[in-house]
Design a protein that fits this description.
Shape: globular
Distance between the termini: 65 Å
Number of strands: 3
CATH class of the largest domain: Mainly Alpha
Strand content: 5-15%
CATH architecture of the largest domain: Orthogonal Bundle
Number of domains: 2
Helix content: 55-70%
Strand order of the largest sheet: 1-2-3
CATH topology of the largest domain: Ribonuclease iii, N-terminal Endonuclease Domain, Chain A
Largest sheet: 3 strands, antiparallel
Number of helices: 12
Radius of gyration: 20 Å
Oligomer: single chain
Order of helices and strands: HHHHHHHHHHEEEHH
Structural class: mainly alpha
Amino acid sequence: MNEYYELKDNLSKIEKIIKISFTNKDLLLLSFVHRSFVNENKKIVLLHNERLEFLGDSALNLIISTYLYKKLSKHTEGELSHIRSRLVDGSSCAKYYEILGLEKYMLLSRGEKEAKRGKIAIYSDAFEALVGAIYLDKGIEICQKFLLDNFSKLFDEMCLSPEIDYKGKLQEFCQKKYQKPPEYKVLKEKGPQHQKIFQVAVFVNDKKMGLGIGPSKKAAEQIAAEDAYNNLNLKNIEDDNG
């Protein structure tokens, strides 16, 4: 039996995992279909989950923004934006998907299954597609309940110990010392369209001070900023200015 039909038979198991019974089962099914699978199975399925991913990304950002606005009443806009970026970035969304144990149901091409590289981008996109499917079928309140019921503890932990905003700190340093922001340049990008890897350099006062590699330009820029932060010894400068 083709995996597509096996997935159809497993939808009830997935509904038990996420504790939501779909009215339109096709939406739930679609959220698990990766573009690469469609390319190999065009006689069986023509649609993949990228449109749902687009919608889910917006729904996720709205729900997380509302959650942070209510929970962190004393935080500034910049602080809220930084924490939100952590809660909705690719690695976090992939983690949510794996916590639910849904990755085993993903429909991928043979090549994607056998690829040794990590599947963070694929699982992240699939999680956003699932959020989009829930939003379309059940509305924003059920979508919010799904996220908070499953991940509020994790959200709380990430709010209490947010990572350093290296890009923000580097920007602040450059503006103060050189009166101009750091400049990020993409040096290389490789891989298929849905699984690209970016190499980004950051220049401080026209000198290359950091390098980062990641699954998105944003992730690579953050890593490059951290590299520059360390190379410029900004931690000690901040401590001295205490």
